[in-house]
Amino acid sequence: IENNPRSEYRLQAYVHLGNLYRRSRDWRAAQRIYKDLIRLYPGTAWAYNSTMYLAETHAHKGHNDTAVRIYEKMQTNPDIPLVLRAQAQLRIGDLHLTDQKWLEALNTYRVALRDYSKVPGISIVAEEKMLIATEGRRSGRVPYRPIRGPRARAEEPSDAGYQLKQQQESVPY
Questions:
Q1: Can you give the pTM of this predicted structure?
Q2: What gap in Å lies between CA 167 and CA 128, rounded to an integer?
Q3: 58: closest CA among 22, 23, 90?
Q4: Terminal C-alpha separation, the chain
Q5: Cα separations in angstroms, 169 against 125, 129, 148, 165
Q6: How far is CA 65 from the centre of its chain?
Q7: Which residues of 43-67 are buried (b: 16+ CB within 10 A; e: fewer)?
Q8: Phi/psi class of residue 141: alpha, beta or left (left: φ > 0; alpha: ψ in -120 to 50)?
Q9: Per-residue pLDDT tens listing for the chain (173 residues)
Q10: Is 148 helix (H, G, I), strand (E, B) or coil?
C-alpha cells in the first residue's frame, strides 16, 4: 500500500490487511483500516462491507452499543445493499441476545422478518433466533449460541478490472 500507492491492487490490499488484523484479533488496527476504506472509497461495496467489519470489531472489543449504532446507521442508508442491511439487522439482534436483552432481540428479529423476508436465509435464521430469545425470556438463563444452518451472505464486492484480467488470463489461446 505504501510502496506502490498507484497499484491497481491497492483496494484489495487494504481489504486483506484489515481482514488479517481482524483474524489476528488486532481490533484497533483493523478498525483503522476499515475506517480508511470507508473514507477513501465512500459509496462503494467495499465501504459497505468495511462498515459491517467495523461494527464487528467493536462488538469483539465488547463495545456492543457502538456496534449497534453502526448497524442501525446502516439500516437508514438506502444505498447499502439489501443483503447487508438484512445482515446488520440480524447482528443487532445477536448483540441483544449476548447482552440478554430478550425483548429487544425479539423485536429486532421481528423487524428482520418484516423488512427483509425476501432476502434468502433471513426468515429461517430470524425465526430460529426468535425461539432462542423467547426461551431466554422465559427462563432467563439461556446462553446465546450461534445457529447452524443457512445464513444470509453477501458476496465480496467485485473489482471489474481485476475480474477482467483474471478472465483474460484463464482464456486459452
A1: 0.74
A2: 40
A3: 22
A4: 33
A5: 40, 45, 38, 6
A6: 16
A7: ebbbbbbbbbbbbbbbbeeeebeeb
A8: alpha
A9: 778 877 778 888 888 899 899 999 999 999 999 999 899 888 888 899 999 999 999 999 999 999 999 999 999 999 999 999 999 999 999 999 988 888 899 999 999 999 999 999 999 999 999 998 888 877 765 555 555 444 444 445 455 555 565 566 655 54
A10: coil
Q: Residue 56 has which C-alpha cell? A: 464487528
How far is the C-alpha of 23 from the C-alpha of 57, rounded, in Å? 10
111: amino acid identity, one letter? V
Neighbours of 14 (CB within 10 A): 19
- Rounded to whole angstroms, how far apart are CA atoms 96 and 80? 23
